Amino acid sequence: MDELRLNGPADAKAELAQMLELNGIAAVQEGDNYRFLLGSKGVKWETVCCPTEDGAVVIYGVYPFHACDGSKAEAFCRRVNEAARYGAMLYRDETLMFRIGADLFDIYSAYETLGRALEYSAGIMTRFWVQASAVSEH
Prior knowledge:
About 35% of the residues lie in helices and about 35% in strands. The chain is of the alpha+beta class.
């Protein structure tokens, strides 16, 4: 009989795959990473989830427009980062994205922790949508 595992980090890859399946999220798998669309309040963006070997998932919410003016984009990121309690708004290759991590340190709360991180990311993406759009070209 297999030994019952009562503690330790969750298998981030398995937890992520299971959560996406249980919630009916149509995701494209690229290696260990998953890409899918999320939406709220009439807007949609791409989300990329990257599980790590040490029981965490790094989540990127990517705005669907390009920010060509680097100084405006960086100022926007600073404003978001001052307001955000967790995670960070980043500007890379003319793209604005919000990054947050979900540390799945406990196998019994992994699903809940991952869900909270995705919800927080979605909240930031929608809260700052108009401002992100204003510093971007459509």
